[in-house]
Amino acid sequence: MHDTIFFSACDLINLYKSKKLSPVENLKNTFDVIKKLNPKLNAFISIAEKKAMKQAKFSELNYLNNIERKLEGIPFGVKDVIDVQQEKTMNGSKLFEISEVKKNNSTVVNKLIDEGAIYIGKLHTHELAIGAPTFSCVDKPASNPWDFNKTAGGSSSGSGSAVGGYLVPFALGTDSGGSIRNPSSMCGIVGLKPTYNSIEMRGVQPLAKTIDTVGPMARTGKDISLIFSVLKKTLNTVNHNFKNLKIGIIEHFYNKDFIANEEVVASFEKTIKVFEQNGSVVSKVNLDNLKTYHEVNGTIMAKEGYKQFNKELELREDLIDKLTFERLYKGKHILDESYKNAKNKKKELTQNIHEVLENFDILITPTNFDLPFNVGDISQINKYYMRHARSPFNVSGNPAISVPCGLSKTNLPIGFQIVGRYNADQFISDIAHDFLIKTDWENIREQNIIKNLFL
Predict the structure, then answer these.
(1) How many distinct structural domains can be found in the chain?
(2) Can you give the residue range of the structural domain that contains 346?
(3) pLDDT for residue 145 is more than 70
(4) pTM (2 decimals)?
């Protein structure tokens, strides 16, 4: 085990600048750990070792010559719905196993590379970014670094597993119904669903274009803020006062609309106390019933997803996992009028959230209502599919970040969401970072996860 794998992106940059560590040395350590742990985690589906090592040597020269870019020498992976030059984008599906390699990088990959980040490989995704962690797709599902028998969540499963398992300091995922925040919560890391349309989607496989986002997943809020600063378009960032935050708790999501697991509720209540003890003013708020958000988001995702993949669904059902097919094929039977009604309801729900946020700096709620279940367990997949509070912020487009807030009795991570106003992405990332420092999460994580990963 190499100690360097535990460092965040910001930590690594400081070590590079002080010449206490080199990008080449760190990358060698990274590949050593990947070779040891990836067979258990199944996070990476491909590794670009030679290309990455060449880039690491270039980064090392830049540091020697005091040429410093924002992410110089930091390794990262991307969910396999994001294009990388000279590699296939298989979208986690047998449908695309024989597809041609991509001629160009996606915009997000170009932005990271332009700032010195080192691309090292593609990461597992649930099929077409809407499927489930089953064993009938391109490869077996990614595993949870806290317990290899548990799911890593999804659909950005490999990204959550790789970051949570210390294979990379950060990765990219996508989120149309919680696909960044779900694995982030389950793997004990930080994951940002950015403000809708704040990051360029060119070169990212669409699922539902009016709600799709791409975003960073890392182990610290500070890293998330740094990576977002590289990825974002030229939008104004919302500034807030960190002191005396006004926080709205969406309690009815988890104790009325759905009844969350008692360990999730207990961890979330401790989270509220942390904010209160540090000067925040906390109040309960009411939004629409959570099931309404699920219905609107589900209608839009199915209708737009079917439109995106209708040829494959109609002609090659034999190559598509049953659950993926069922989720997308629903879109064929959604009437245009029903879709139009969902879009109109989306506007209404969005306005309601914006009005609530006029009186609060942030909203908070649990990310998921249950603990990670056994990987590939179809009965659990169906049972827990809707038991979460992620879809409201896909519907509204607000930035939402999942943050670790505790461990279950069985040593599985629990997460909560911080939700901000439009373009407050870096603000909520900074709050996440501050919260993790106050709760000593890094030490808690390392003390509790090492025995599963390395012993």
Answers:
(1) 1
(2) 3-453
(3) yes
(4) 0.97
